[in-house]
Amino acid sequence: MAQQERAVRTRRAVLEAAAAVFAERGYAAATIGEILNRAGVTKGALYFHFDSKVALARGVLQVQVSNDYHVPRELKLQEWVDAGMTLAKRLPQEPMLLAGVRLSADLQSRDVVGSAWPAWADVTTSFLSEAKERGEVLPHVVPEETAQVFLGAWIGVQHVSQAMAGWADLEVRMSALFSHMLPAIAAPAVLVWLDTAPDRGARVIAEVEQASALAGAGQ
Amino acid sequence: MAQQERAVRTRRAVLEAAAAVFAERGYAAATIGEILNRAGVTKGALYFHFDSKVALARGVLQVQVSNDYHVPRELKLQEWVDAGMTLAKRLPQEPMLLAGVRLSADLQSRDVVGSAWPAWADVTTSFLSEAKERGEVLPHVVPEETAQVFLGAWIGVQHVSQAMAGWADLEVRMSALFSHMLPAIAAPAVLVWLDTAPDRGARVIAEVEQASALAGAGQ
């Protein structure tokens, strides 16, 4: 058990080191040597978990989508907004997510390594499909199509925020994106109840962390 | 006069060669040698017009925005849609525009070379400002803010279309972007009249080219 736990930790340390290097240098310029140095593990330990640079990049891409900050809400559309806004808050601070963005957008490496884009689009599709079943969404909305528009828009908003503000305005830009797309998606009676403020992500994260601290204290 | 005309042509040939090389290789990997070869001009001729790779890239970025396919319409918002849809039609076929997209998005070179993003955002801002004066736009719309959202979304839609379809679905994606953003922008009575179909750009271009052919025949 202790050995298995150590293996999980080593794997995570390697993945985090790989993410940091991919986020900084991109796929082509990243080397296993630098990832090794950064992870502080032996070559054998790294290769036990990941047998190549491709495997490392795929490992990073596999952990892009999580439910860590998902809180059930009365409106499924609010859950969708929350997913986007918590990601906008976390992205600039988390090398794992930054690496996912960079690897996914890399036109050279993505044929071999893959991309988190399909997984992101799936997240939107499934929120919108559930929202549609509940009547929160305008009748003509096709979840898969809207998910593709949102995917493109979200990637571009990331890019512009990175280039023009070093990520500092990502939450503001993301909030503006939601308020420019939701009127085409949400039923009017739902639209007025959605919270798309720039600090929405920070508030959801605080809520989840507080709940988790209370749960920890209660143990 | 003949000499001046020759100079204009040489400058254009050099710029088109530079655009093709920047579009294919990106800024860092492009060399003046390859641009020279492709342009078929002498080194002296190239350096007469552009004294460095930076100057060539800036030259390409300066010709990104044009009025070539602008047709006045009853609705300013239709003119804005037309600008976006004609660009979506032309982009995959024109190295000059592809180079503009690639250079503008290049996080390494854009600090030195610049970017067409501000010029694109200005185009949207000015269409939306005029549309607002005419009452075509919802009262709460701030043209500069909407222009920033649209800029990000448009860049991302380009990127996704390039990565996933080699640009083949750019018009479909762009049309979907407009239909997902316009309900947040256009007054309802205007919204129903806007043509955002995927082939809108092709139709506007055909209209302009036909008018220009007729004008030529009438001379």
UniProtKB/TrEMBL annotation, chains A, B:
Q: Which residues bind DNA?
A: 31-50
Q: Does the keyword Cytoplasm apply?
A: no
Pfam (any one): TetR_N
What lineage does the source organism belong to? Answer: Bacteria, Bacillati, Actinomycetota, Actinomycetes, Kitasatosporales
Coiled-coil-forming residues are none
Superkingdom of origin organism? Bacteria
* Keyword DNA-binding on entry: yes
Q: What is this protein called?
A: ScbR family autoregulator-binding transcription factor
**In this protein, which residues make up the domain named HTH tetR-type?**
8-68
> What UniProt keywords are attached to this protein's entry?
DNA-binding, Transcription, Transcription regulation
